[in-house]
Amino acid sequence: MIHCDNLVKIYKVADLEVVALQGLDLHVEPGELMAIIGNSGSGKSTLLNMLGGLDRPSAGRLMVDGKDLLGMREKDLVKYKRESVGFVWQNNARNLIPYLTAQENVELPILLRGKRKRERAIELLEAVGLSHRRNNKLNQLSGGEQQRVAIAIALANHPKLLLADEPTGSVDTNMANQILDLFRQLCRDLGLTIVIVTHDPALAKKVDRVVAIRDGKTSSEIVRRKSYEQELLDQEQGIEDVQEEESHIEYAVLDQAGRLQIPASYLETIGAKEMNKVKVTVEDGKIVIMPPIKV
Length: 295
Ligand SMILES: Nc1ncnc2c1ncn2[C@@H]1O[C@H](COP(=O)(O)OP(=O)(O)O)[C@@H](O)[C@H]1O
Ligand SMILES: [Mg+2]
Known about the structure:
Layout: E1 2-13, E2 16-28, E3 33-37, H1 44-51, E4 59-64, E5 67-68, H2 74-83, E6 85-89, H3 102-107, H4 114-127, H5 143-154, E7 161-165, H6 173-190, E8 193-198, H7 201-204, E9 209-214, E10 217-224, H8 228-236, H9 244-247, E11 248-252, H10 264-269, E12 279-283, E13 286-290
Parallel strand pairs: 3-8, 3-9, 6-7, 7-8
Antiparallel strand pairs: 1-2, 1-4, 4-5, 9-10, 10-11, 12-13
Helix pairs in contact: 4-5, 5-6
The protein binds adenosine-5'-diphosphate (ADP) and magnesium ion.
């Protein structure tokens, strides 16, 4: 669904250049629910905006659903934005109107008319588990319910790809879990591909794959040994819970040139943190990294 190769985004502000993405690689399978995690300023929102066609990369390759977003004409990019992607933001006030009901809010962006418009809105509210609250004004709904309305709107144009920027940023843990459950259900039932951006490591434990970005580059990938869905099933059947360390495997990302980012804590352990080179050898079928020999 998504192929990013060596993606670069440079923002020009007055005379300054900010390199927000510096050669980022990312691949996402159709129907996958995955998360992108990283500190504030690491380039998460920039990446999401590129994926959603809201802004264009400066260089590299970006294919979404077989479409080349870098080479695409402006007109086609507008069409892509409108027909292929749905967006969910942390601050849903951005696309919701407080004095309208949940249903009226969902109806607004729907291009159908009359009865068909109403039916589609109700269908969408049902998909997000909110049909019982459809006649409530938005300001009578909880934060989590408002977020569901925002998700219903994001689904209005039948997107294949749903992009969520810190979707659980302003709700409590319980609500965050419910929103994730909803995402999982949407993936399963509608075959949607969902990319969630977050800085919350707790959320990362609940998806099957998490890609970490640091300084505008993918640095590591954390993969579940067992899918979260399977784990929930096992828990229900009383099968013993595995330890946190065992439920996930973390991989360092290897780029096309063979570069890899070694966690700072590992370098510290071998006393190579302040060094700009290390000794790399192959021993017994393993690659061994050692601090330089002191002279
Ligand atoms: N429109 C913009 N103009 C200039 N710089 C920007 C713009 N958007 C983001 N940046 C810069 O790009 C970097 C990455 O930002 P962002 O993608 O928002 O990170 P995150 O979402 O991970 O917090 C930051 O240094 C930020 O200041
Ligand atoms: Mg952001």
